Amino acid sequence: MKGETSGPPGLKVHATEILGCSEVYVDGPRSELRRDGTQVRGDKVPVTRPDYSWELPITLQAKTGAAIVVNGIDIEVLDSSPPPQQGTIVMPDGCGSVMTPRSFDVNLDAERPSAKPSAKGSQAAKKPANFPLKVSAGDPEQLVLLLSAYKHDVRFAVTVKWISEGETGSVTLDNGGPGYRVTGPGRLPRVPVTELPE
Predict the structure, then answer these.
(1) SS3 assignment for the chain
(2) What are residue 33's DSSP bridge partners?
(3) Are the CB atoms for 67 and 133 separated by under 8 Å?
(4) pLDDT digits over 170-187, tens only?
(5) Average pLDDT of span 29-48
(6) Which residues pair with 146 in a beta bridge?
(7) Residues contacting residue 149 through CB under 8 Å, at least 6 positions apart
(8) For residue 141, what are the contacts with CB-CB under 8 A and spacing of at least 6?
């Protein structure tokens, strides 16, 4: 198409908010919590458990018609500490199913977290995601990072590395500056969202 091959190669990378249907940590006592419909109000931090990972969907697309080879993802831990000792964990009220066709496991408790091909989900088992991946303007790719941090409260950033026509580059996703955040459950009290006043 007209104009697709003009300009230097580059990669458009977009991450939506961390998705999931599991427990969330709220920095406040239960007596102060309120719900809006089936969601708890206020700032929430995803809580991971050994049987559940939160998802960070990332979309990759070339800026021009030139193909780009994405050759990896780096995970940078910006801050890590034990799970919070004050606050409340709110449990959800029902969840739908989620499909993750190209997913990567990210253990944020590891000393050097990395994105490893995941075998979770029926599509992933048939065709596990791995690098390098080829993307273009007309053929984007969506990846899902399955995040786990059972023993820590972690803020992190994701860097996508690429190469095209001999030129290398990278794009860092840091949630607008502060990084993304997930936490382990620690020993915090848990409450069903349906028990919170509206």
Answers:
(1) CCCCCCCCCCEEEEECCCECCCCEEECCCHHHCCEECCEECCCCEEECECCECEEEEEEEEECCCCCEEEEEEEEEEEEEECCCCCCEEEECCCCCCCCCCCEEEEECCCCCCEEEECCCCHHHHHCCCCCCEEEECCECEEEEEEEECCCCEEEEEEEEEEEECCEEEEEEECCCCCCEEEECCCCCCEEEHHHCCC
(2) none
(3) no
(4) 999 998 899 999 999 888
(5) 71
(6) 55, 105
(7) 48, 107, 108, 109, 182, 183, 184
(8) 59, 60, 61, 70, 102, 133, 135
Residue whose tokens read 């794009």: 171
Average pLDDT of the chain? 79
| pTM of the predicted model as reported, rounded to 2 decimal places | 0.76
The amino acid present at 93, given as its one-letter code, is D
The pair of structure tokens assigned to 62 is 């070339």
